[in-house]
Amino acid sequence: MVTIDSADVTKMVILPKLGSEGQEVTITKTGNEWKLESEGKSYKADPSSIKNILAELMRMKSERVAAVEDSKWDQYEVSDSTGTRIQLYKGKKMISDLYVGKFDYTQPKGPQDPRQQQPRGKMSTYVRPAEENSVYVVDGFIKMSIQPNVNAYRDKTLFASNKEDLTKITYNYSNYDKFVLTKENGIWLLDGTPADSIKTSLYLNKLAKITSSNFIDDVEPFSHTPAFQIQIEGNNMLPVELNAYPADSANKFVITSSKVPDAKYSGLKAGLFDRIFVDRAKFFSDNEE
């Protein structure tokens, strides 16, 4: 369906069906970086999301023709008013223009034996090239990868590192508390006192990969001074600063990361604040002070 090299693609435009609440999303490549634009705003892109779209498009092959007349477009959700449109560009030249439509799932055939591994069902998506009347059936659920929603392609990683590379974490909780967790000769110390190795390891396992898809761009914090702040340092990495600003009851805190300066995340949803900002007691066993 798409007979081009993914390396040739320099821009993708995803357009929602007419009358929907979706957003037009433009994804542009500059050098090795991808940039998102939607509704007059720019965002840092998640490279893996962009890679997934291109991989899905490149492997997409027609299995059969579902229709050859435009009267069937709405039925298969591949018209302007029913389909999601994706346009690929090489420089200023459009090299592919597709409508991605209805998704179907077919149950596996044959008897179901609970003692054996069950056969997988068949997932199919209806696709129409913009210059054709014909509607094609392709394997897979490509509609999941191509969504007219800019948040689907934004960078969701506040922090990511190999846990073994972490060497120092500085906690500054405004007037509440301040402490430093450092690794010396393979042992983690909190303000110079050996921390509980198991509890510290469990916390660092979570901290080493912090992600969130709960963007709250329109929420303004009550203060521009963070109530909670940590700075993470380590080998093979630049320091990363995570901040929590007091906010409304629906989010509790606005969380920011120096790694993704254009994003604000909800502190309450998915327990993001609690995963990052912990008390010093978190690093000691219950019988220690």
What does this structure look like?
By secondary structure, the chain is mainly beta. Strand 13 and strand 14 (193-194) form a beta hairpin. The protein is elongated and about 75 Å long. The protein is built from 3 helices and 19 strands. It folds into 2 domains: 6-108 and 115-153; 157-283, Dna Ligase, domain 1.
How many DSSP H or I helices? 3
Number of DSSP-assigned strands: 19
Strand order of the largest sheet: 4-3-2-1-6-7-8-9-5
- Supply Rg: 24 Å
Q: What structural category characterises the helix and strand content?
A: mainly beta
Low-confidence runs of at least 5 consecutive residues: none
Number of separate structural domains: 2
Largest sheet: 9 strands, antiparallel
Q: Average pLDDT, to the nearest integer?
A: 92
Share of β-strand residues: 35-45%
Helix content: 10-25%
| N-C termini distance | 64 Å
Q: What is the compact description of this entry?
A:
By secondary structure, this protein is mainly beta. It is built from 3 helices and 19 strands.
Chart the SSEs and their pairings:
Blueprint: E1 11-15, E2 25-30, E3 33-38, E4 41-44, H1 47-59, E5 62-67, E6 84-90, E7 93-106, E8 122-129, E9 135-139, E10 157-160, E11 166-173, E12 177-184, E13 187-190, E14 193-194, H2 197-207, E15 209-211, E16 228-234, E17 240-246, E18 253-257, E19 260-266, H3 272-276
Antiparallel strand pairs: 1-2, 1-6, 2-3, 3-4, 5-9, 6-7, 7-8, 8-9, 10-15, 11-12, 11-16, 12-13, 13-14, 16-17, 17-18, 18-19
